[in-house]
Automatic annotation (TrEMBL), chain A:
It is found in: Cell membrane. Keywords: Cell membrane, Membrane, Transmembrane, Transmembrane helix, Transport. This is Phosphate ABC transporter permease. It is a multi-pass membrane protein. Residues 92-277 form the ABC transmembrane type-1 domain. It holds the Pfam family BPD_transp_1. It comes from Actibacterium atlanticum. One of its GO terms (molecular function) is ABC-type phosphonate transporter activity. The chain crosses the membrane at residues 28-48, 96-116, 137-155, 259-276.
Automatic annotation (TrEMBL), chain B:
The keyword Transmembrane helix applies. The keyword Isomerase does not apply. NCBIfam families: PhnE. This is Phosphonate ABC transporter permease. The lineage of its organism: Bacteria, Pseudomonadati, Pseudomonadota, Alphaproteobacteria, Rhodobacterales.
Length: 290, 439
């Protein structure tokens, strides 16, 4: 017993020195990482600033000029505000329609792609990597690329935006859905297979009921994102409220009161659908059964 | 419970199911019918410009070489896409053209031969015959055709003649005659015709004799490739870098700003509930205003460029990160903090050693996920504010002729986003070992 204590006593300073050494090294590494990161950030901002048309420090005090101008103009013609809101309401509806349709179409595509690329459910198991790569490419494609190409072919309007967003949505949701599918139990699928169900029956009756709440939750989240995307695509000519905003914002026209009305509509719509979707998502994920 | 009651219950259940199973698709169908008319899909079919689509698809993988004859001087010039940047140097020409004295013979493939001589231009089309034109100021194009009615691929008037065949086209006006020959590929992708390295193989450049005596092969080739005036590889690389820079600065900056603010918005850290409420509303506001509006507001102050894009991403994502981080903070385990506190740690130390290690995995995984998604946003914001690859893409689209460049940029953008996706996934798995789900 005495030996043991003695031996421990002899080792303690060693261990402490070793521990302190390791701590110091860890701190050093942490410090180096943080300073590299800080250096990257600072030099990145300096570089971005130097390549910007106007400098950061020159523009900083002007940052509120434009909002102030918009607000003051909107305030001067505040009597027109209700009529402006009413004028642009249809284009807001168009923007929301674009988002809704593209979310639905994209979700359908995503469901099919996800089922085709999940192990144990795939119709053609050998093609799983192919479908995964297809989803990767669809996800990587920014909406604006497809939208601009389609605007060239189809002309401006809601359809190019819808197709562009649906394409991206199918890839993005396909990936999320396939993660959901991986956690689904395969027993119902096997049961259905044993009674001779076809692939589509197995999927419809065996898989979809298990995963539908999660699908809906992701779909709602995507709808939220797609409203923003469809507003942005409008700005490049694909119809909806973004297009009206661009027209109202063009230099020299001085229709900032209309721009303010559009800002209010867009902001209101985004916040409204954010709240709505987070409410329903909460219900879907936390005991919606009750 | 009696059998009747159970039956009634199950009947009700079935009725509800039936309603849901038929009602929901019916609602969706009705909505799609409404959309069909609201989006004017019938009118769209009429408005669609399928010829544009054909040009786009054909141009994205092929190029045309113009052989132009100035009818007044008789001079013949060769240029790829008819651009000065793609012009053949004096005395050089594509191999399907032969010149002897005044006569230029152009082989357009499939047996079609065009000939420019001192006075006239002829085009021999197998299966149709010989088209001859002797343009002059007085008589216009002055063309003669084989017997019979003109086919619809020939468009002739006094002052203009256009013959369109697959793979080639001839246009003659009073002042000049022009033949296009289409070939597939992205021509001059590596070197333009004025570079001495054009046409040299990789082996010749790497191991062969010095092509340009003034500089070493590798350095010279790299320089000519980088400054290729047709494809502008250097500028494109810069633009891609700018886009990634926007995404990086925006995402990381937002995370740095949002982390301290998130403490103020978390239930278990905020000093007063009023503070928490205020911060939450600020996050909601910033998120709700949306990247589009921030981009517009900021570009008015800072002008177009990567800084504006980075700041727009930074501000929008501060809202998203603030919300997500504060939710993560609300889920931390109090026991660890108490443990740290029991050793006499000050508040800052409690946060540093009790809280941060708990939320780091969640934070990092969110930040890295956003980094990838913001690379895509940065492309879009770049198209709006004017910076990065998004700007190049919109510029190439506006000209409506450089579709091969458009397809090049699209390939680059997809590659860039997939690379960021892969990279962020890699870092996520490395840093958050054991958390396979990534969430």
């Amino acid at each position: 017993m005495a030996d043991l204590t003695a031996a421990q006593g002899a080792q303690t300073p060693d261990i402490r020195a070793h521990y302190m050494d390791m701590t110091r090294r860890k701190r050093l590494y942490g410090g180096i990482t943080i300073s590299i990161f800080a250096l990257l950030m600072v030099s990145g901002f300096l570089l971005a600033d130097s390549r910007n048309a106007g400098g950061f420090w020159d523009g900083l005090h002007r940052i509120f000029d434009f909002p102030a101008q918009v607000v003051s103009e909107a305030w001067e013609s505040r009597a027109d505000m209700p009529s402006h809101l009413l004028t642009y309401f249809p284009s807001l509806i168009e923007t929301i329609n674009i988002a809704a349709v593209s979310t639905m179409v994209g979700a359908l595509g995503g469901i099919v792609l996800s089922l085709l690329s999940t192990r144990g459910m795939a119709r053609f198991p050998r093609l799983i990597p192919v479908f995964r790569r297809i989803m990767d490419v669809m996800r990587a494609m920014p909406e604006i690329v497809i939208a601009l190409v389609l605007i060239f072919i189809l002309g401006g309007g809601p359809v190019p935006a819808m197709i562009a967003i649906a394409f991206h949505t199918a890839g993005a949701l396909g990936k999320l859905f396939s993660e959901v599918n991986e956690n689904a139990s395969l027993k119902p699928v096997e049961g259905l297979q044993s009674v001779g169900a076809t692939w589509s029956q197995r999927m419809m009756l065996g898989v979809i009921p298990q995963v539908l709440p999660n699908y809906l939750s992701y779909g709602l989240l995507r709808f939220e994102i797609n409203i923003r995307a469809s507003a942005i695509l409008g700005f490049v000519g694909a119809g909806g409220i973004g297009y009206e905003l661009k027209n109202a914002m063009s230099w020299g026209l001085g229709k900032f009161d209309e721009a303010a009305a559009i800002f209010i509509l867009l902001f209101g719509a985004i916040v409204f659908f954010d709240q709505l979707s987070s409410h329903y998502r909460n219900r879907l994920t936390h005991g919606g059964k009750a | 419970m009696t059998t009747a009651a159970i039956k009634l219950q199950s009947d009700q259940l079935f009725a509800r199911k039936r309603l849901l199973n038929f009602g929901l698709p019916a609602v969706v169908l009705a909505y799609f019918i409404y959309i069909f008319f609201a989006f004017d899909l019938i009118g769209l079919a009429e408005r669609a410009r399928m010829d544009n689509a054909r040009i786009l698809v054909a141009d994205s993988y092929s190029y045309k070489t113009h052989v132009t004859r100035d009818n007044r001087s008789g001079e013949v010039s060769f240029a790829i896409e008819g651009e000065r940047k793609g012009a053949y140097p004096e005395g050089e020409m594509p191999e399907w053209v032969s010149q002897s004295g005044e006569e230029t013979v152009i082989d357009l493939g499939d047996g079609k031969i065009a000939t420019y001589d001192a006075q006239s231009i002829t085009l021999d089309i197998p299966g149709y015959g010989l088209i001859t034109s002797t343009p002059s100021r007085a008589k216009g194009v002055n063309a003669t055709f084989p017997e019979g009615a003109l086919p619809d691929w020939i468009n002739a008037s006094k002052n203009r003649l256009t013959v369109t065949t697959p793979g080639a086209r001839l246009t003659i006006t009073r002042n000049r005659a022009e033949v296009f020959r289409y070939s597939s590929g992205w021509e001059l992708f590596f070197f333009t015709l004025n570079s001495p390295y054009h046409g040299a193989g990789a082996g010749q450049i790497l191991f062969g004799d010095r092509i340009d005596p003034a500089r070493s092969n590798v350095a010279g080739a790299a320089h000519d490739f980088w400054h290729n005036p047709m494809w502008r590889h250097g500028e494109v690389a810069w633009a891609m870098f700018e886009t990634v820079l926007m995404a990086f600065l925006g995402t990381m900056g937002a995370a740095i700003v949002a982390l301290p603010l998130a403490f103020m918005a978390a239930k278990n850290f905020a000093p007063f509930s009023a503070v928490r409420f205020g911060f939450r509303r600020v996050f909601d506001f910033v998120r709700g205003v949306d990247g589009l509006i921030w981009t517009i507001v900021l570009s008015r102050a800072f002008g177009p460029g990567p800084m504006t894009g980075a700041l727009a991403i930074l501000i929008t994502d501060t809202g998203s990160f603030g919300k997500m981080f504060s939710e993560a903070l609300e889920n931390v385990d109090e026991k660890q903090i108490e443990g740290i506190q029991s050793t006499g740690a000050k508040p800052v130390q409690r946060y540093r050693f009790g809280v941060i290690p708990q939320i780091t995995p969640v934070l990092l995984s969110q930040v890295l996920y956003y980094l990838e998604s913001n690379t895509r946003s940065a492309t879009i914001i770049g198209a709006i504010t004017g910076g990065g690859i998004g700007l190049l893409l919109t510029q190439a689209m506006i000209t409506q002729k450089d579709w091969e460049e458009v397809s090049y940029y699209i390939v680059l953008i997809i590659g860039m986003v997939m690379l960021m996706d892969w990279l962020s996934g890699l870092i996520r798995r490395r840093l958050i070992a054991g958390d396979e789900s990534g969430h």
